[in-house]
User: Fold D-serine deaminase-like pyridoxal phosphate-dependent protein from Paraburkholderia bryophila.
Amino acid sequence: MKLDHIETPAALIDVARMQKNIARMQGQMNTLGVAFRPHVKTTKCIDVVRAQIAAGARGITVSTLKEAEAFFAAGVADILYAVSMVPAKLPRALALRRQGCDLKLVVDNPGAASAIAAFGDQHGETFEVWIEVDTDGHRSGITPEQDTLLVVGLILHDNGVKVGGVMTHAGSSYELDTPEALAALAEQERAGCVRAAERLREAGIACPAVSVGSTPTALAAAQLDGVTEVRAGVYVLFDLVMHNVGVCALDDIALSVLATVIGHQADKGWAILDAGWMALSRDRGTSKQAHDFGYGQPCLLNGTPLAGYVVSGANQEHGILSSTSASTEAEATAGSADDITQRFPLGMKLRILPNHACATGAQFPEYHAVAPDGASVEWRRFHGW
Amino acid sequence: MKLDHIETPAALIDVARMQKNIARMQGQMNTLGVAFRPHVKTTKCIDVVRAQIAAGARGITVSTLKEAEAFFAAGVADILYAVSMVPAKLPRALALRRQGCDLKLVVDNPGAASAIAAFGDQHGETFEVWIEVDTDGHRSGITPEQDTLLVVGLILHDNGVKVGGVMTHAGSSYELDTPEALAALAEQERAGCVRAAERLREAGIACPAVSVGSTPTALAAAQLDGVTEVRAGVYVLFDLVMHNVGVCALDDIALSVLATVIGHQADKGWAILDAGWMALSRDRGTSKQAHDFGYGQPCLLNGTPLAGYVVSGANQEHGILSSTSASTEAEATAGSADDITQRFPLGMKLRILPNHACATGAQFPEYHAVAPDGASVEWRRFHGW
Assistant:
């Protein structure tokens, strides 16, 4: 189906850009001499993941057990579930392993470690667990020098659970915007995670995998000595937040929301779109960055960004497109009342680049994968837990 | 299924609260002597809509043609599609009408009116169109005194399209928080919409329906002379934004997200939950209100709000629960390191009240409808367009 015939709002993936992003990240990993395990939470779409694997990815990272189940059913067996395990979710994890899924769990505390050991013992299953390391104070994990690291490692190791590795996620990289700061955080992430693995090994725990990553640190890392693999998710599509972080150009962003102009408030300088926050998501990640893109950057159908315009507001099914230079209603009235209706006539279709590809994609049951000749096919994605 | 056995994260509807909210709104409409047409965009769930209709609702309002198709398939025929129509969507609207759906369209501009008239003429279909009126400058619509109102009305009327009514939505009511301001806006909404209908009638256009509404103005209206029906959506579940607007108590909020404590960062005073923004949504509506509830208000399983705690941060599948009194990391370290791990032990389940019921519900494929005895059943909802 051609772009002109897709009903709006719709989530489009520019396949050429996606493939370029995949090749860039895989090339960086190959240069650094580490394996790459993409985080599939960004797209939850088997078509995208097949492209990542075809380019060289080894295994995947998931954020929910539903992702693990769906991708295992689609033929991916090497899966890291990168959210701390809790006892109530162990039966689903066991069921996956019993079906042959090489599912690896993550813990960052003694209680969860003990529960996995006891549950494994009860069911005669040797679980593989990776220990989450906190290298930037951003979220979960045990800092490399905390005694808890060895406590958790030994609870697992001494109770028949395989300690498969350590993993960390320097999520604070999203708050940076210079190459120097990103490179420094990438080195901090690497050094902390390697240090945690060394401490476990000194305690007699093998800990073969050392897994690091976020899209910005993965792309900024100069060397990854001691690291065995990298994880990243949003790089496959990129978005305006990543553009502001400085790791992609606007024309690397492979996800856009196709929208139609459904009306105007000419005296305010507004064109009304049929893409509101239900389509674009409520993610306003760029609001805290140097360049605030509102609810998204409008582009022509061919992908050319419309400089000077932004989706400035959103209701559930209504988006407001306006000029960035009309900072007051009076200015808009003076300068752009005619401009807005003439530049954006009723029925015109636009593509909106989103703040955050993970959040925007999740609003849609499917992507429309658009080839360079403009033809598209549907790629299903799933949601829920 | 009992609450303890529902896998997390999950969206819960407290059915007793929902029924109370439905009865309250329907009672208000009965007192005011107007029909009630609930906006089903909030839940996209036939089980909820059946309860609204059983209580006295007449017809529904939808925000997408997919909602119209799904609810018509489920037996609801009287449907107002309350987003401005564009030509490309007319074939789907026609298909619904041909199947017997009493679908009403909305326009606010001459171009769309002409397109509907031409399309109806071409296909031998008499469409019914309501004209959108702008009574508060919030979004779409034609202001009551604009000449465009009559232009649009006459394009429709003179070209064989039925002008079924006028409709307005005073969405700026979400920005208010006193009974006086809400009552004043309700009157402004009423007066403006009635005035628009009168102008059309003076021009010889019948315009039988006069439809107003938003949850706050519907509940605040003292009289609705000249109005025939009211629309409202979020009242059926309510949320923290509506609590701050002043139209519901915390214990009226019928939607919550069931979450599990999956870890801690005790030195920061954090408990980590398995409900991040993918479950809670990125909607931070309360951030601009007098009481900022972060990503949500934690409650015990029995629904009791945990005063002094908030979901202060969210990653995709991680939520951060912390004390509202620990405004700095040092305070948290001094006062609540033990408190957070003891009050919120690993595996503990909580219910999180959301900022915005429409946005949070959309993150889930289903609700778990919880009866007063704690038993629950699944109510499916749909997404997409």
Q: What stands out?
A: Chain A touches chain B through 59 residues (CB under 8 Å). The longest strand of chain A covers residues 255-265.
